[in-house]
């Protein structure tokens, strides 16, 4: 649900704003690129609504009209909406698109149309964020537009596409920094839709033009991260040293795996013997600050700042630091010479 409003001061149009939120949600106000919490505030000064009212700046610019005139007061108020910049509420975006992930052109499920599909206009009505923030997040989660609807690729299908691309790079002995779009489409177009091949290159590479030809520089960290997720998703816990060996063997030749590529995706348990690693995706955690910390402290009682930062970084408001969040929601102590954080409240 959304309500569109326009701000006018005198006859000057300033901005177009939208109030977004469904019945069970706290309404937010969105400009073209920012999101604000809304709170009613009282004022001791009566606010008057006067049609055609001019600001002091306008009066200075129009010296000829500087006469005392009688104006009709259309209304008054003793309160106003106080706005505070807030994080866009984007978790719902992935949740909606994951109702019906795209499994490829041959998927029977996709042909039955039993699930909801969403256009840009649908998402603007359902997501509490500005248009620019929504469109940016669609890029972040590698969504693509198929027949007018925004879709997220089902992970196994995404890995199938990525595997086609990396195998072609290996067979052609291309540099990972110069993968030609045209040849990829020609060679792989018979296996998968050309749009899906290009989408995979856009998701896992940087597009550039050299001598009139389109090339992609592949992102090593993102490819290594995706392959790690594929290895970890079916295991409760994985022996760390064994995982690292299998992971390195699974990535394309020339790529190097590092644990820092897995921030916000997997967590290492250094207290177990042997050390283990398991899947813990930041996008699966609650969006609310307190609920996020409760969830993290139920997974692990004590965290180092290094380990917890990838899982709370996205909670930081404008100009807010991870340290400030930890001060508010956690209690610090020193354990074996290392500063750790635990919950301020009992975790059930």
UniProtKB/TrEMBL annotation:
DNA damage among the record's keywords?
no
Q: Does the keyword GTP-binding apply?
A: no
**Looking at the UniProt record for this protein, which Gene Ontology cellular component terms does it annotate, in alphabetical order?**
chromatin; chromosome, centromeric region; Ctf18 RFC-like complex
Q: What keywords tag this UniProt record? A: DNA replication
What family, per the record?
Answer: Belongs to the DCC1 family.
Q: What biological processes does GO assign it?
A: DNA replication; maintenance of mitotic sister chromatid cohesion
User: What's the name of the protein?
Assistant: Sister chromatid cohesion protein DCC1
* Top-level taxon of origin: Eukaryota
């Amino acid at each position: 649900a959304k309500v569109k409003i326009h701000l006018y001061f005198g006859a000057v149009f300033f901005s177009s704003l939208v109030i977004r939120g469904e019945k069970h949600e706290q309404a937010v106000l969105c400009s073209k690129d920012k999101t604000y919490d809304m709170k009613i505030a009282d004022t001791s000064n009566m606010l008057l609504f006067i049609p055609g009212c001019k600001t002091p700046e306008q009066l200075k610019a129009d010296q000829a009209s500087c006469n005392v005139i009688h104006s009709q007061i259309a209304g008054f108020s003793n309160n106003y909406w106080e706005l505070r910049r807030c994080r866009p509420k984007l978790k719902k975006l992935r949740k909606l698109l994951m109702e019906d992930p795209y499994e490829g052109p041959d998927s029977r499920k996709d042909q039955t149309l039993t699930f909801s599909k969403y256009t840009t206009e649908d998402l603007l009505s359902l997501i509490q964020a500005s248009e620019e923030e929504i469109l940016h997040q669609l890029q972040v989660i590698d969504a693509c537009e198929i027949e007018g609807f925004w879709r997220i690729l089902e992970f196994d299908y995404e890995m199938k596409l990525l595997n086609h691309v990396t195998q072609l790079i290996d067979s052609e002995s291309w540099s990972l920094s110069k993968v030609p779009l045209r040849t990829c489409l020609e060679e792989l177009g018979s296996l998968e839709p050309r749009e899906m091949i290009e989408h995979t290159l856009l998701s896992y590479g940087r597009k550039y033009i050299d001598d009139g030809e389109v090339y992609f520089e592949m992102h090593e960290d993102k490819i290594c991260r995706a392959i790690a997720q594929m290895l970890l998703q079916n295991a409760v816990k994985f022996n760390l040293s064994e995982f690292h060996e299998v992971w390195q063997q699974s990535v394309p030749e020339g790529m190097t795996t590092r644990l820092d590529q897995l921030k916000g995706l997997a967590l290492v348990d250094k207290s177990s013997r042997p050390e283990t690693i398991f899947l813990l995706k930041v996008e699966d955690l609650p969006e609310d600050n307190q609920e996020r910390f409760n969830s993290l402290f139920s997974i692990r009682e004590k965290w180092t700042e290094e380990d917890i930062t990838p899982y709370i970084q996205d909670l930081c408001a404008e100009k807010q630091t991870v340290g400030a969040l930890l001060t508010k929601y956690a209690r610090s102590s020193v354990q074996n010479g290392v500063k750790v954080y635990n919950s301020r409240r009992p975790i059930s």
